[in-house]
Amino acid sequence: MPEFSNEERNGRLRTTVTLQPGERVSFCRCQKSADLPFCDGTHKTCETTFGPLIVVVPAPEKAPEN
Ligand code: FES
Fold first, then answer.
1. Reduced to 3 states, what is the DSSP secondary structure of residue 42?
2. What CA–CA distance (Å, rounded) separates 13 from 35?
3. What is the per-residue pLDDT across 16-54, written as a single tens digit (0 to 9) for each?
4. pLDDT (0 to 100) of residue 59
5. Do 36 and 6 form a contact (C-beta atoms < 8 A)?
6. Domain assignment present for 3
7. Tell me, what CATH number does 44's domain have?
8. What long-range pairs does 13-18 form, CB within 8 A, spacing at least 24?
9. Separation of 55 CA from ligand 1 center, angstroms?
10. How far apart are CA 46 and CA 27, in angstroms?
11. Mutate which of 25, 27, 28 to test ligand 1's pocket (most atoms within 8 Å of Cβ)?
């Protein structure tokens, strides 16, 4: 599960998400999610052409075993 933290900066809420290799997170672009800034799937039930922004950090490839 990605770690995230909120902080106020210059009077505005700032969210930092820290991902580890192999993790992914979906951000809302439709502005209808009840869990902003994250996508909660609400975009599927409203009229919008926007789906989530998905960020993936690939897991490192395993070295071949000899
Ligand atoms: S809920 Fe907004 S993109 Fe999924």
1. helix
2. 14
3. 999 999 999 999 999 999 999 999 999 999 999 999 999
4. 93
5. no
6. no
7. 3.40.5
8. 17/55
9. 14
10. 16
11. 28
Structural domain contains residue 15:
no
> Can you tell me the distance from the alpha carbon of 51 to that of 3, in angstroms, rounded to the nearest whole number?
22
pTM (2 d.p.): 0.81
CA of 54 to the centre of ligand 1 (A): 11
Rounded to whole angstroms, the Cα distance separating 10 from 14 reads 9
Q: Which domain holds residue 46?
A: 20-59
CA of 50, closest atom in ligand 1: 3
* Residue linked to tokens 């580890």: 20
